[in-house]
């Protein structure tokens, strides 16, 4: 395997309900970003797709990110999601040197009850203005801004460096 091409792959999902965004507070026991606010998501594992039947005769699997965020959102906050769409992507290098690619998606929920996993200690449904009052992990607010524009039917913009 070419180490220059190997990455952890993560998918996150901003859940939208009644024009508000779901944010969740990471537990104080979490190693990374403890006590900070984020959106549900997690790492892709091979079993995520290899346990499923292949979708093509040549051995491909479709909807890998969609299935990942469906599982992560259900595990972390107990919600079922639908109409999953792409928002943006980012890459970073973890403290241990592992390059990581994050695909940020968004989806809708119609009203299930929130059930938090042990990884999370609180949740809120917020609009963009309310989100400013929370200690969000870097980049989450900007993704909420991007999604807010998309939902208003405004021009889709790419993330840009802050001044």
Summarize the structure.
With 163 residues, the chain is an alpha+beta fold. It has a single domain (8-151), classed as Nucleoside Triphosphate Pyrophosphohydrolase (Alpha-Beta Complex), CATH 3.90.79.10.
What can you tell me about this protein's structure?
It is a single chain. By secondary structure, the protein is α+β, with helices and mostly antiparallel strands. The chain has a single domain, classed as Nucleoside Triphosphate Pyrophosphohydrolase (Alpha-Beta Complex), CATH 3.90.79.10. 21% of the residues lie in helices and 31% in strands. It is built from four helices and seven strands. Strands 1, 2, 3, 4, 5, 6 and 7 form a seven-stranded mixed β-sheet that branches. It is globular. The relative contact order is 0.24.
Summarize the SSE layout with pairings.
Elements: E1 8-17, E2 20-26, E3 37-38, E4 41-43, H1 47-50, H2 64-77, E5 82-93, E6 99-108, E7 120-126, H3 128-131, H4 140-151
Parallel strand pairs: 1-6
Antiparallel strand pairs: 1-2, 1-4, 2-3, 2-7, 5-6
CATH architecture: Alpha-Beta Complex
**Unreliable residue runs:** none
The total tally of domains equals 1
* Outline: globular
Order of helices and strands: EEEEHHEEEHH
CATH topology: Nucleoside Triphosphate Pyrophosphohydrolase
Gap between N and C termini, in Å?
38 Å
- Main pleated sheet: 7 strands, mixed
Structure summary, number of beta strands = 7
Write down the overall mean pLDDT.
91
Rounded to an integer, what's the Rg over CA atoms?
A: 16 Å
β-sheet strand percentage: 25-35%
């Amino acid at each position: 395997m070419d180490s220059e091409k190997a990455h952890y792959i993560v998918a996150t999902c901003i859940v939208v309900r009644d024009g508000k965004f779901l944010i969740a507070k990471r537990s104080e026991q979490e190693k990374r970003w403890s006590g900070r606010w984020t959106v549900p998501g997690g790492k892709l594992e091979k079993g995520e797709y290899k346990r499923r039947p292949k979708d093509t005769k040549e051995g491909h699997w479709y909807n890998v990110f969609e299935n990942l965020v469906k599982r992560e959102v259900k595990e972390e906050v107990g919600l079922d999601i639908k109409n999953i769409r792409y928002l943006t992507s980012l890459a970073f290098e973890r403290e241990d040197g592992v390059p990581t690619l994050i695909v940020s998606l968004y989806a809708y929920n119609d009203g299930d009850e929130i059930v938090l996993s042990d990884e999370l200690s609180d949740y809120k449904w917020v609009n963009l203005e309310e989100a400013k009052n929370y200690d969000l992990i870097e980049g989450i607010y900007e993704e909420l801004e991007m999604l807010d524009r998309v939902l208003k039917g405004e021009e889709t913009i790419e993330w840009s460096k802050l001044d």
